[in-house]
Write a structure and sequence with these properties.
Structural class: alpha/beta
Shape: globular
CATH superfamily: Metal-dependent hydrolases
Largest sheet: 7 strands, parallel
Strand order of the largest sheet: 1-2-3-4-5-6-7
Order of helices and strands: EHEHEHEHHEHHEHHEHEE
Length: 293
């Protein structure tokens, strides 16, 4: 199995290591490629955070990754990406600015949730489904009156809307909503509503042409006992012919390649025998090839 990771964060956002250190670690571990994918600037949502790339440093980020491409040419392929949040009515991967940046790829992700009917967070920094548990509980109470089922439904609805809108190459950590749900505290993944909403996405994802990542970030940071997404969801995606690739969602160099064997086994259990590897971009089209697991 070829080693690669297109979901990687550096000090430009919430990562612990710089671009050069991440590239060096990937090369030393035998990776064929690495993609740097900072959390895209969030200021258009009406606030800033400590874990997104500040808009004031966007040009610096783009230059840094492009410079790394040149430095590492002939050793390891380095790709320039962004992980773009989808917040209905506010921002998303399809926004024109991302097409104008000359990115190699984009990851579409849902972190932020607004309750049904709301169009802004006001002065708050927003509610994210993967925030530290204490912050998550506070936000759940503020935005969803502590109703985990309603929050979960809003998450899957937002993912479905993002998939319909398109504009991204990779679908990020598909079932991220489970991160703070240890012991099924807020909802049951085996419950009717969860299954209906998650299972209904397989067809639209296949139609979108996006690649789904098998993300080991929750395992690397000790937050989940399985990959994003679960084997059950991956089985549904496999039935629809959705391509998948393994990523580490690494926020530090030591997590590059972490739990990849678990991801490989999860893909096998779901019926996959190949992952899909990124090979750059030609115009508006991302180029991929198959790689045996």
């Amino acid at each position: 199995m070829t080693l690669t990771s297109l979901h990687t964060h550096t000090r430009f956002c919430d990562g612990k290591d710089d671009t050069e250190a991440m590239c060096a670690a990937a090369w030393e571990r035998g990776f064929a490629s690495i993609g740097i994918s900072a959390h895209a600037p969030i200021e258009k949502a009406g606030f800033s955070t400590g874990w997104h790339l500040p808009r004031a440093r966007l040009a610096e980020y783009l230059d840094a990754v492009r410079s790394a491409k040149k430095r590492w040419e002939g050793k390891i392929a380095v790709y320039l990406g962004l992980e773009v949040d989808f917040i209905p009515g506010i921002m998303g991967p399809r926004d024109r600015e991302y097409r104008e940046m000359g990115l190699d790829y984009t990851i579409g992700s849902v972190h932020y949730l607004l309750p049904p009917g709301e169009t802004s967070f006001g002065p708050e920094e927003g509610f994210t489904v993967d925030s530290p548990l204490e912050e998550f509980e506070t936000g759940l109470g503020r935005y969803f009156n502590g109703d985990g089922e309603a929050m979960m439904a809003a998450y899957w609805d937002a993912v479905a809307e993002m998939v319909r809108a398109g504009g991204f190459d990779i679908l990020g950590h598909l079932d991220l909503v489970k991160k703070n749900n240890r012991g099924n505290r807020w909802f049951s993944p085996a419950g009717r509503l969860y299954r209906e909403k998650s299972e209904a996405l397989a067809g639209p994802i296949a139609a979108s042409g996006a690649v789904v990542e098998v993300n080991t970030g929750g395992l690397n940071r000790g937050k989940t006992a399985e990959t994003y997404p679960s084997a059950r969801i991956l089985s549904l995606l496999h039935e629809k012919g959705v391509p998948a690739l393994i990523t580490g969602d690494a926020h530090e160099k030591d997590h590059l390649g972490g739990h990849y064997e678990t991801a490989r086994q999860t893909l096998f259990a779901a019926g996959y025998r190949e992952q899909t590897l990124f090979e750059g971009r030609t115009g508006d089209k991302a180029c991929w090839r198959k790689d045996e697991l």
